[in-house]
Amino acid sequence: MLIAAVLVLIVLGSLLFHFLSPWWWTPIASNWAYIDTTLIVTFWITGAVFTAVVLFIAYCLLRFRHRPGRRAAYEPENRRLELILTVGTAVGVAAMLAPGLVVWARFIQVPEEAAEVEVVGQQWQWSFRLPGEDGQLGRADTRLITPESPLGLSAHDPRGQDDVIVEAADLHVPVGKPVKILLRSVDVLHDFYVPEFRAKMDMIPGAVTYFWLTPTRTGTFEILCAELCGVGHPYMRGVIVVDSESDYQAWLAEQITFAQLSTARQAADASP
Amino acid sequence: MATTIHGTADAVPPAETAEVELYHPHSWITRYVFSQDAKVIAIQYSLTAIAIGFVALFLSWLMRLQLAFPGTLAFIDADSYYQYITMHGMIMVVYLLTALFLGGFGNYLIPLMVGARDMAFPYANMLSYWIYLLAVLVLVASFFMPGGPTGAGWTLYPPQAILANTPGQDWGIVLMLVSLALFIIGFTMGGLNYVVTVLQGRTRGMTLMRMPLTVWGIFTATVMALLAFPALFVGAVMMLFDRLLGTSFFMPAIVQMGEQLSYGGGSPILFQHLFWFFGHPEVYIVALPAFGIVSDLIATHARKNIFGYRMMVWAIVIIGALSFVVWAHHMYVSGMNPYFGFFFATTTLIIAVPTAIKVYNWVLTLWQGDIHFTPPMLFAIGFIVTFLNGGLTGMFLGNVVVDVPLSDTMFVVAHFHMVMGVAPIMVIFGAIYHWYPKITGRMFNDLLAKLHFWITFLGAYLIFFPMHYLGLLGVPRRYFEMGETAFVPASTVTLNEFITITALVVGAAQFLFLFNMFWSLRYGRPAGGNPWRATTLEWQTPETPPAHGNWGRELPVVYRWAYDYSVPGAAEDFIPQNQPPSPAEVRGTMT
Fold first, then answer.
1. CB nearest A76 (choices: B5, B302, B469)
2. Which among A106, A231, A133, A7 has a CA at the least distance from the CA of B167?
3. Which residue, among B476, B365, B368, has the nearest Cα to B413 in the 3D structure?
4. CB of B448 within 8 A of CB of B509?
5. CA dihedral defined by B543, B547, B550, B553, rounded to 10 degrees?
6. What's the complex ipTM?
């Protein structure tokens, strides 16, 4: 009796909480509104199933509770009912999976025109690299990391000399242009996570991972690490600023290239 | 075909194996300590698992206190916080849930339910427990070593698991890996026993399709565990080599804090594949015994046959098989080849279909039942609700693109606690209350048990349901403290405080359970042999608690399936499996 009432309250309470609670996703700042849509579809389908099943249980508990003289029915199987429920479930599952896979296909197909930005994670800071004027990122390797080449760029690769190095500072990207984020780590696993972008991806030492997005509004967003990376994990924060094109160009003009950085450091080493 | 499951008049086949010679104890030591009786081993397993489970409970209190009131308890720093979450997770998943369901319930129930005198290999069964105990002791030892236990997170992802900047680098991670290897060795000895006993040790008439679903669940889970745990074993040994011998199975070239380490060429993601090849089946290794047990609790306490028995058996087997091809849904944002996403999202969502069938069939068993709201039934209902909730949020996380924003957030924490924490533990409590009268011969205190249910069920729901919304907001998991973060509103502090206070209350309520168990041992009223009027064999033993050898002089003979409740025309609302068919049944006039 009591349990039936409580189950009804659980359904009502969960629905009320869902619609009234102040905790909901952050306003989106990327093209991945598709993900939000798929998530909403999933909420509706799963919410309907949860409500229906729990209310049905509550009804059964009330209606078929033990009373003196009551005897249960004897019904081992009901092929037809089982078939209907199986097919119905399969349809519901397909209704969630199909849009999910379509959006995933978009998620992993990077547009040709996407500009590359490299993110380098280490305990516990974020650095960044842009391709420079030649539009190409030079070779980099964890083994090549030195004080003169903090991100491990090869001194012998001409493509890397003009790469823009943003060491432990804010990253800027222009609004409205697709960006392919290349992810690299020099020590342990990290994960580049900006809640407003919806997308995230792990960074693996020894490999380059990626995802892409198009920032859809200007603003300053916090970068968090979403993969446990040691005791400093919660403090591994960074900032990404989505700029208008002119602001972005102004920021870019102030940045230094790999060639400038390594020359300056070599000079500093030579005169202690 | 239909007659083989609920028909009763067919012939009883001859026994497949001869009577076994049991090793009978000669002293207190061989009776209660180095016992070869599966029932004693079961109790040893269960008490050890519950004891270490209370350690995990205590750790969860500490981490919840840190999340709600950061800085209040001076002794909790980032190092110790990560040690708490790591040990809490590993203890709960492996040393409590796996050990209790398979080593505890498996040992107690398999021989009794299939009508065997004991496990097939009692000596290996005894060794299984003692190696498990050793594994637990090695794990606990890490708390007392320099540097403390590992804080690598229960997933132990390299490279950070064995490097500096992660607590427990000296001893903690080594003892954790050694302990896991020991656990797997011990489990394998027990697991082979459970499988062989089910396949070879069934009594006359106990066909596979007459077995209670409890046995089906534990049996399938054990087969899975025997196939899945070796992946973890390999991973643990390789990581141990990386840590102790300087090999680089999982370690690429690394520069840590400006220093080149001597590793190179290994693959961190290889470990993740090995870990989750074990780790996902592990979810079902815990879930399948729970599925089986809860089916029997519902049938018994609703006085009704389980609905769609054959479908339930097939669902268990299909889920067991499918769960070996879904592991990488834990790795959608791991940086693995993104095309894997299509395959693993599809297999993951397909597994929802047999799982949903199980939920429907539990609910349909209640339909037109005669439902007694005993503590086992209440916990079974609590299981269905929390499992349904946790299963449905799995539809978010299994669907690759929806997982992307939610992965590594509190949504994941809420999901897996609901589905593989709260739900199976509901079944564990229900099962303990259900079989306590058989194990001890006494009834527990009903009022205390119901109080325990209400606090645990409502509290757990209040803890984990709102937690999903923190994850939806974007709050990451495994954060020692959130600090000032622009997108996280101050109101989340209130929510965290609410969750923590509820968790303290729910945790405290578990002492009601513990008290009830010990108090009733002495003061509970005598239960008799079959207080729930159940059909399955364990309730038909000549003695309660059952003696060594279970059955007295003659093994029981099974004439019917496990679910003859409320059979029309029968005098009682249950017919034990070993009751020969009545003349009416033989004539076929009764059903």
1. B5
2. A231
3. B476
4. no
5. -80
6. 0.96
> For chain B, how long is the longest CA-to-CA vector?
86
Mean pLDDT of B337-363: 94
Put simply, whether A234 touches B (Cβ < 8 Å) is yes
- B372: amino acid identity, one letter: H
B180-208 pLDDT, tens digit per residue, is 999 999 999 999 999 999 999 999 999 99
CA quadruple B325, B329, B334, B335: dihedral, nearest 10:
70
Pick the residue from chain A with its C-alpha nearest to B359: A53
Question: B401 in contact with A at a CB cutoff of 8 Å?
Answer: yes
Q: Is B18 exposed, middle or buried (0-12, 13-18, 19+ CB in 10 A)?
A: exposed
Q: Structure pTM?
A: 0.95
Q: Does the structure show a pLDDT above 80 at B584?
A: no
Q: Please provide the DSSP assignment of B425-462 as one string.
A: HHHHHHHHHHHHHHHHSBPPPHHHHHHHHHHHHHHHHH
| Mutate which: B294, B332, B404, vs A, most A CBs within 10 A | B404
- The dihedral over CA atoms of A68, A74, A80, A85, expressed in degrees to the nearest 10, equals 50
- Cβ pair B25, B548 in contact under 8 A: yes
The domains of chain A, with CATH numbers, are: 2-65+77-108 (no CATH), 115-270 (2.60.40.420)
Closest residue, chain B, to A192 (C-alpha): B333
- Rounded mean pLDDT of A23-27? 95
Per-residue DSSP letter, B371: B
pLDDT digits (tens, 9 = 90+) for A124-179: 999 999 998 999 999 999 999 999 999 999 999 999 999 999 998 999 999 999 99
Distance CA(B214)–CA(B293), nearest Å, equals 4
The neighbour count for residue B216, using CB atoms within 10 Å, is 27
The CA distance from B5 to B312, in Å, is 12
A104:B335 CB<8 A:
no
Least Cα separation, residue B466 to chain A (angstroms)? 8
Give me the sign of the Cα torsion angle A262, A185, A129, A168.
negative
Q: Is A183 helix (H, G, I), strand (E, B) or coil?
A: strand
Joined together, the tokens standing for residue B132 give: 């498990």
CA distance B160 to chain A (A): 5
Q: How far apart are CA A228 and CA B82, in angstroms?
A: 9
Contact state of B573 with A107 under an 8 Å Cβ cutoff:
no
- Give me the residue from A34, A145, A235 closest to B255, CB to CB: A145
User: What's the pLDDT band for A269 if we cut at 50, 70, 90?
Assistant: confident
Q: What are the start-end ranges of the H helices in B418-554?
A: 423-440, 446-473, 491-523
Look-up of token digits 């803890």: B463
d(CA B566, CA B371): 12
Closest by CA position to A106, among listed A210, A28, A34 = A34
Q: What angle do CA A8, A13, A14 make, to 5 degrees?
A: 100
A170–B contact, CB cutoff 8 A: no
> Which residues from B are below 8 Å from A6, CB to CB?
458
Closest CA to A226 of B417, B78, B478: B478
Determine phi and psi for B163, rounding to 5 degrees: -105, 170
What's the pLDDT at B1? Answer: 35
B477, HSE (Cβ side, Cα atoms, 13 Å): 23
Interface of B with A in 261-290 (CB under 8 A): 264, 266-269
Cα distance from N-terminal residue to C-terminal residue, chain B? 16
B388-426, pLDDT tens digit by residue? Answer: 999 999 999 999 999 999 999 999 999 999 999 999 999
CA distance B453 to B432: 12
